[in-house]
Write a structure and sequence with these properties.
Shape: elongated
Low-confidence stretches: none
Number of strands: 25
Mean pLDDT: 91
Oligomer: single chain
Order of helices and strands: EEEEEEEEEEEEEHEEEEEEEEEEEE
Helix content: under 10%
Number of helices: 1
Number of domains: 3
Radius of gyration: 24 Å
Distance between the termini: 50 Å
Structural class: mainly beta
Length: 331
């Protein structure tokens, strides 16, 4: 499609007769604004930039009596359902026959696939019968749960939900979906929720981060407000906290103060807006004893903050550096 005006679009395929949609995706790294959340709905969201050649938008079809699909993901919010930011890519999934229906693979795998960028996998072209899915446990993660939450008539019950396998039964023309392998890691530097003090929260990411780690934000938090409710966040390590989502995320404190930076530490915030906490500490937004860097950010005054209280309070030996566009709204 030539001479397309720059902007946001979706590519839609009309499903060809006699075929099943195996998957579709833009496999090129061209920084589309929206993720391809559902990998087999015949839709690919794209962003066309000026003079861009947006290639590798693939719709993959298969002639098949049955398709098996699912996700491998780190369930940050504990809802046992995959989100784009939770998916684990490059995980090996193997499918083996289970002709005697005992829940144990008969022999070598008849199909092997890798999960894509959002943790999705799909296996097409499979005959009717009983099978066992097996996940190769990804390094650095622990098994939480292996489940198929759909009631799709599997002959063999899933009696062991933590052994990296899932028994399933494939019937004619069935799409056996939602075969989930749920993983966990001791610490994840990816903020996925606006809540405080829960897995996937900004506080959790900061608390478990190692020295000089970088914390990022899920695109799902674009234009959202993260509320700090469980007391101000104290940082006693070197840390980068970066957001490149647009519209950006807002971090608002509902406590006395928001962040305290300890001496000897460099903490850099980029691409984040802040609304300060209320009265009760020196520096309703930042009480800084270290090296605080604020880059492309804005700090707003909480309407509940006393008029003469400071938004930012810099103690010796602390210092503050601003980069790019920085605005302090003190009214």
């Amino acid at each position: 499609m030539a001479s397309v005006t720059p902007g946001y679009y979706v590519l839609v395929e009309v499903q060809p007769s006699g075929y099943f949609s195996l998957w579709e995706d833009d496999t090129s790294e061209d920084f589309d604004s929206l993720s391809n959340i559902v990998p087999n709905d015949n839709i690919i969201p794209i962003t066309v930039e000026s003079s861009e050649l947006d290639t590798r938008n693939f719709f993959v079809e298969v002639i098949s009596p049955g398709i098996i699909s699912g996700y491998v993901f780190d369930d940050f919010n504990g809802d046992q359902a995959p989100q784009p930011a939770e998916g684990l890519s490059g995980v090996t999934i193997r499918l083996s026959t289970d002709n005697d229906a005992n829940g144990v693979a008969d022999g070598p795998a008849v199909a092997t696939v890798l999960t894509n960028s959002v943790g999705y996998y799909t296996i097409g072209g499979m005959a009717v019968g009983n099978y066992v899915l097996a996940e190769q446990q990804p390094a650095g993660y622990t098994n939480v749960l292996d489940i198929d939450p759909t009631n799709d008539g599997d002959v063999v019950p899933n009696t062991n939900m933590t052994n990296d396998t899932l028994p399933l039964t494939l019937t004619n023309a069935e799409v056996d979906a939602e075969n989930f392998f749920i993983e966990a890691t001791p610490c994840n530097q990816y903020v996925t929720t606006t809540e405080d003090n829960v897995p996937g929260s900004l506080r959790f990411a900061i608390q478990c981060a190692q020295n000089w780690d970088t914390i990022y934000f899920s695109p799902s938090l674009s234009n959202q407000t993260i509320h700090i409710t469980a007391g101000r966040i104290e940082i006693n390590k070197n840390l980068y906290v970066y957001s490149n989502i647009n519209p950006t995320v807002m971090v608002k404190s509902d406590n006395s103060g928001a962040f305290k930076i300890y001496a000897g530490n460099t903490v850099e915030f980029k691409g984040i807006n802040f609304t300060s906490g209320i009265s009760g500490t020196l520096g309703a937004q930042f009480e800084n004893y270290g090296h605080l860097i604020l880059w492309d950010s804005q700090v707003f005054r909480n309407v509940l903050l006393n008029p003469n209280d400071y938004l930012i309070y810099n103690h010796a030996p602390g210092d503050i550096t601003t980069k790019g566009t920085f605005q302090l709204h003190n009214n």
